Amino acid sequence: MKILVINCGSSSIKYQLIDTKNRTTLCKGLVERIGAVTSIIRHEFLDEKPLKKSIAIENHSAALGKIIELLMQADNPYLHSIDEIEAVGHRVVHGGELFKDSVLIDEDVESAIEQAFDIAPLHNPPNLHGIRAAKKLLPNIPHVAVFDTAFHHSIPQHAYLYAIPNRLYRRYKIRRYGFHGTSHYFVSREYFNRLNRKKNGSKIISCHLGNGGSINAIKDGKSYDTSMGFTPLEGLVMGTRSGDIDPSILFFLIEKEELSLANVHALLNKHSGLLGLSGYAGDMRDLLEEAEQGDRRCNEAVDVFCYRAKKYIGSYVAALNGADALLFTGGIGENSPIIRKKIIQNLEYLGLEIDEKKNDEIVGFGPIHSENSRVEIYVVPTNEELVIAIDAAKIAIASKQTPWA
Ligand code: ADP
């Protein structure tokens, strides 16, 4: 089945046309700076050079129209008619407590996504915007919502409750939700399936390290605890997000620097993390280059990043009472031997030992643990879009079979 996967951000749309039968991405692209005078479109067919254009794109609806136009180009060997697209899978960041699985989008689902605007003000509004625009452009096929939070619904209460007055959980549903669920789900399934490992009784720690980052403790194949919380701000040091900090710092800053709520929000989400620590960049590649040239603050930023990840791994070994496997994914997790090494070193007590040669040479899926390591350590490239496409395909088929459901 050919499925269009859409990931709508506040000023960008990422898309992929995926053939779920052979799990292949046929075309993909990115529209950035929507609403600006010079929006940028990057579109590529499988095995071909990307096409990059700079034009003004007013809003998400216009961007989606442009995407459909690009997909329908006469020279697209993978799509001869728009009718070949059988469903659209939409990434939705926050499903709140309601959505434990992916769902066919109807008006009720749209209004539930809207109700979660409060708890996901940065993500859910553009996600819903994209859904509505795509439904207008492609009205005759199923649209499916796949939630970043869904995989984490199995997290037990003792791990998802915050120690604040319980009525705040009951009234506002303030709790840990966790994000990157499709990625942690995908990489854990890759580990089970490719290596023929059993889910039951398994204890896995999955590290998704990209611009955003989270670590997930997975027990019996189900999410058991995760570093992101009520929002994607908690947990690891990220590109521009602080991750864990003492909440009292906020009161202190609000008073000392006379910051508004919006200022504090921007400070923690956009100006902190690797960028804030280094004062130079939130991008790990840039930081590593400068660190190698001897830049002290870039080095410090890398050290804080790795130390925070190490602490989470240790705490999840404790939460799971052991670990069978540690998985690395995301742009940093998949591509940076230095970061993986720094995170794993000195965890021998917990049974984790890296093989430096394997770690340096690995490309794509494969092991990087030493012969003595009691815990398997794997690099597993993630593919969140494929998870979305497969869920959308399954739900589209089911909806055709039981249109009254
Ligand atoms: P996103 O969360 O936006 O999907 P990615 O998963 O693509 O992000 O990860 C982006 C991060 O991965 C950036 O910090 C980038 O510098 C880092 N990265 C990519 N390749 C490498 C590499 N070879 N070495 C170190 N970091 C890398």
Give a quick rundown of the structure:
With 405 residues, the chain is of the alpha/beta class.
Strand content: 15-25%
Named CATH topology of the largest domain: Nucleotidyltransferase, domain 5
How would you spell out the order of helices and strands?
Answer: EEEEEHEEHHEHHHEEEHHHHHEHHHEEH
Number of domains: 2
Q: Outline the low-pLDDT stretches.
A: none
Please tally the β strands and state the result. Answer: 14
Side by side, the strands of the main sheet go 5-4-3-2-1-6-8-7
Protein structure class: alpha/beta
Percent range for helical residues? Answer: 25-40%
**Mean pLDDT, as a whole number?**
94
- Could you describe the largest sheet, including whether it forms a barrel? 8 strands, mixed
CATH architecture of the largest domain: 2-Layer Sandwich
Query: What radius of gyration results from the CA coordinates?
Result: 21 Å
- The top-level CATH class of the largest domain is Alpha Beta
Q: What is the overall shape?
A: globular
Measured distance between first and last alpha carbons: 22 Å
CATH superfamily of the largest domain: ATPase, nucleotide binding domain
Continuous helix count: 15
Bound molecules: adenosine-5'-diphosphate
